[in-house]
Amino acid sequence: MNLKFLAKLVELNTDSEMKSNYEECAEVIKEEAERVGLNVNTYRSNGKPNLIISLEVYEKPALLLATHYDVVPAGDGWKHPPFKLTIKGGKAYGRGAADDKGGILSAISAMEILRNKNSSKVNVKLLVTCDEEVGGEDGIGFLMKLKKKGEFVVKGDAAILIDAGPKVYIGSSGRVAGRVSMSAASEEILSLLSSITEYSKVREKLTSSLMSKSAKRRIWGRISVTMLNLSAGEIEYARAGVKSNIIPGECYVKLRGRKEMVIKGKQGHAGYPHLAVNPIQKALPLLRRMGVGGEGDCQLVFDLRTLPEESLESAFAEFKEYIARKAPAAKIDLTEKSEGYVLNEKHPFVEMMRRATGERKVYGTLGGTDAHFFIKRGIPAVCFGPIGDDSNAHGKDEFVRIKDIEFVSNSLVSLCENWKLKASHCE
C-alpha cells in the first residue's frame, strides 16, 4: 500500500472551484499507474484531464472502476494541515484523503496485485476523472459519451463507483442545487429563511420505496441552505458557506455598529445533514430578532437531495412552488442537478459484490454519485469505497482509515479473481 503516493495526491490542492493543480495531479497518477505496469490514456474535456487506466487480461468481460481527483474547498479551522498527509492512529488526514484520493489508491493497488499475480478473470478499466464534485459532465459524463470510429471508448459489463463507504451501496440520492435571491421588506426575507426550514421537515418525511426493506440504510429527502449572504434591519451582514454541497462550519453575523459575531456549527457533506450542524440554522433566532425594519437583500444557495425515483424537474418545481407561496418576491435559479438510482439487489453483480466483500447487507448512499452515467448506458453500477461515515468528507480534518483502503483493495482483487458475470458490453 503506497501511502507516499496518497501523500503526493493530498499535497496537490485540486479544488473543484479553483480547478487548480489538475495537470500536476493527473501526471502523478499516471506515473504511479505506469510504475506498477498499467496502461494509461488521457482524455481532456474543456482542457481538464481524465485518465483511463487499464489492466488487460484478454478476457471478454470488463469491469469499470470510477474515481475522481477533484476535491471540495478545504476551508479553515483544521487541526491537521489539509494539504499535507498526516498519519495518526491508523488514519490518514488531509483534504481528499477519503473523498476520493484514498479510492484512487485502493483501485491502483488492487490492479497492481492482479497484474503481479496474473489472476484477474476480467479486464479492468479505472476512470480517474476531474469534476465529480461539480456534476461530472466533464468527467464520467464526457468519457461515457466518447466515441472513436463510431464505437464507445468506454465499454463495460459492470461498474463500481469507488466513492462511498466500505459496504455495498446499490442506490443513491439525486441532487438539485440552486440559488434564491430576494430584495424585499426585511420581514419577508426572514420569512423566506423560515420557509426553507419548514420545507426541510416536509422533505425529511419522504422515503424511497425502491430500496427493499432488507436494505440496511434507506434514502430519505433532505434540503439544506449551504450558502448565505443577507442584509436586513439591524443586520449589516450575515454570511456563510463556500460551496453548494458543503454545510458550512461558521456563519458570520455583524449587527450595525457592533463587532462581528461567529455562529459555530459543524462543517459537513450536504448529503448527510444529520452528521453536520448548520450554523445558518443556529443563527436564525438572532436573525429573526434583529432583522426587522426597512428593506433587505438576501442571496442563498440550497442543496436538495431527491429520492432515486423522484424526477429532478418535479422536485425542483415543487420546491419553487412552495417558495412562491411563502415568498412571492423570491427568484429561484437551478444551477446543478444529478440523478439518483437503485440497482435491483437480486442482480448477479450485487451478489458478486456481497461475496467479494463478505457483506450480505446492502445500503443506499445519501450522497449523490456519478452512477447515473453508467445506468444510462445500461451498465449495472454499485458504490463502494473507503469513505467512513465519520470520515468528515467535505468537512474539516477529513480522514480515511488505512485499513479501509486495504479492505477495498483486497475486495476488488477477490471480485476480479472470482468473476462470474458474462460479457455483454452493455451499450
Compile the SSE list and pairings.
Elements: H1 3-11, H2 22-35, E1 39-45, E2 48-55, E3 62-68, E4 86-88, E5 91-93, H3 97-117, E6 123-129, H4 140-145, E7 147-148, E8 151-152, E9 158-161, E10 168-172, E11 174-185, H5 186-204, E12 222-232, E13 235-240, E14 246-247, E15 250-255, E16 260-264, E17 268-269, H6 279-290, E18 295-306, H7 312-326, E19 331-338, E20 341-342, H8 348-357, E21 362-365, H9 371-375, E22 381-383, E23 399-401, H10 402-417
Parallel strand pairs: 3-6, 3-9, 9-22, 10-21
Antiparallel strand pairs: 1-2, 2-6, 4-5, 5-23, 7-8, 10-20, 11-18, 11-19, 12-13, 12-18, 13-15, 14-17, 15-16
Count of discrete alpha- or pi-helical segments spanning 4 or more residues: 10
Query: Uncertain runs with pLDDT below 50, 5 residues or more?
Result: none
Structural class: alpha+beta
| Biggest sheet, spatial arrangement of strands | 16-15-13-12-18-11-19
- How many strands, which pairing sense, and closed or not: the largest β-sheet? 7 strands, antiparallel
Strand content: 25-35%
Give a count of the beta strands, DSSP E runs of length 2 or more: 23
CATH class of the largest domain: Alpha Beta
- The CATH homologous superfamily of the largest domain is termed Zn peptidases
Q: Estimate percent helicity.
A: 25-40%
- Specify the overall morphology: globular
Provide the domain count: 2
Radius of gyration: 22 Å
Provide the CATH architecture of the largest domain.
3-Layer(aba) Sandwich
What fold name goes in the CATH topology slot of the largest domain?
A: Aminopeptidase
Q: Cα distance, first to last residue?
A: 35 Å
Determine the mean pLDDT.
Answer: 94
